[in-house]
TrEMBL record:
Keywords: Hydrolase, Metal-binding, Zinc. GO terms for molecular function: hydrolase activity; metal ion binding. The lineage of its organism: Bacteria, Pseudomonadati, Chrysiogenota, Chrysiogenia, Chrysiogenales. Residues 46-225 form the Metallo-beta-lactamase domain. InterPro entries: MBL_Glyoxalase_II (IPR051453), Metallo-B-lactamas (IPR001279), RibonucZ/Hydroxyglut_hydro (IPR036866). This is Beta-lactamase domain protein. PANTHER family: HYDROXYACYLGLUTATHIONE HYDROLASE GLOC (PTHR46233:SF3). It comes from Desulfurispirillum indicum (strain ATCC BAA-1389 / DSM 22839 / S5). Its cofactor is Zn(2+). It comes from the Bacteria.
Length: 244
């Protein structure tokens, strides 16, 4: 497990002061923090991220792909209440812990793109192809699309549709925090594989070029596997885009 957090992330602008969540009360405005922790879960070491706001304890779990106990222990130890389980796509290494988490936190909303829902519901079968085990996901509570925008305290999470690795692949973007969760669409120095069912190389390249590389260079990218990177670094060094 490795931990990332907004190390110096004090509310530096007015906007980050919880959009004045507490400004209507006469007490001094309290500071609101957004933090995130990333765990490498399951045998394929998928990056599962817990984003949470202090002091409310509201949390979002991105890609609970395995090791449900590690994730729930973290949530419990930090007194967090998961509001959403979000999935970048339906591959078993990104959905494997969903049903266990849903059982423990039935009030949290499970969201995935409609085109990847079936893939997630067959996570057990696809895991078997790798000689691994995973629990299938349940039916989604709601679907993600380009119109989806979710609120976590003062922060807004928007959905960017990036098909190519899977038909229903998406990325999660936090505009004010300059943060992108790119799933298996974009990695440090690489891109997602497209040889699995539903994969499409040209579509993936197009998604990254037109959707992700339009974001500011300084946006930090947390990929679905491996170390973090930035949009600027990938535009410059990623061998798949060197001649763009
Ligand atoms: Zn994948
Ligand atoms: Zn993956």
């Amino acid at each position: 497990m490795y931990i990332l957090r907004f190390a110096n992330w004090r509310p530096q602008t007015d906007a980050i002061l919880g959009k004045h969540l507490f400004s209507r009360i006469s007490r001094p405005i309290r500071e609101v923090f957004l933090q995130y922790h990333v765990f490498a879960v399951g045998p394929l070491e998928a990056n599962c991220a817990v984003l949470f706001e202090s002091p409310s304890g509201d949390a979002v779990v991105i890609d609970p792909g395995g090791d449900a106990n590690t994730i729930t222990r973290f949530l419990d130890e930090h007194h967090l209440t998961p509001r959403y389980f979000l999935h970048t796509h339906g591959h078993f290494d990104h959905v494997g812990a969903l049903s266990a988490l849903k059982k423990k936190y039935p009030d949290a909303t499970y969201l995935i793109h409609q085109q990847d829902e079936t893939l997630a519901m067959h996570a057990d079968k696809t895991a078997q192809l790798y000689g691994l085990q995973a629990l299938p996901a349940t039916a989604a509570d709601a679907y993600l699309s380009a119109e989806t925008s979710l609120q976590l305290g003062a922060s807004q999470i928007t959905v960017i549709e990036t098909p190519g690795h899977t038909p229903g692949g998406v990325c999660f973007y936090l505009n004010e925090e300059n943060l992108l969760f790119s799933g298996d669409t974009l990695f440090q120095g690489s891109i997602g594989r497209t040889d699995l069912p539903g994969g499409n190389y040209d579509q993936l390249i197009h998604s990254i070029r037109t959707k992700l590389f339009g974001l500011p260079d300084e946006v930090v990218v947390i990929p679905g596997h491996g170390p973090r990177t930035s949009i600027g670094a990938e535009k410059k060094h990623n061998p798949f885009f060197r001649y763009m």
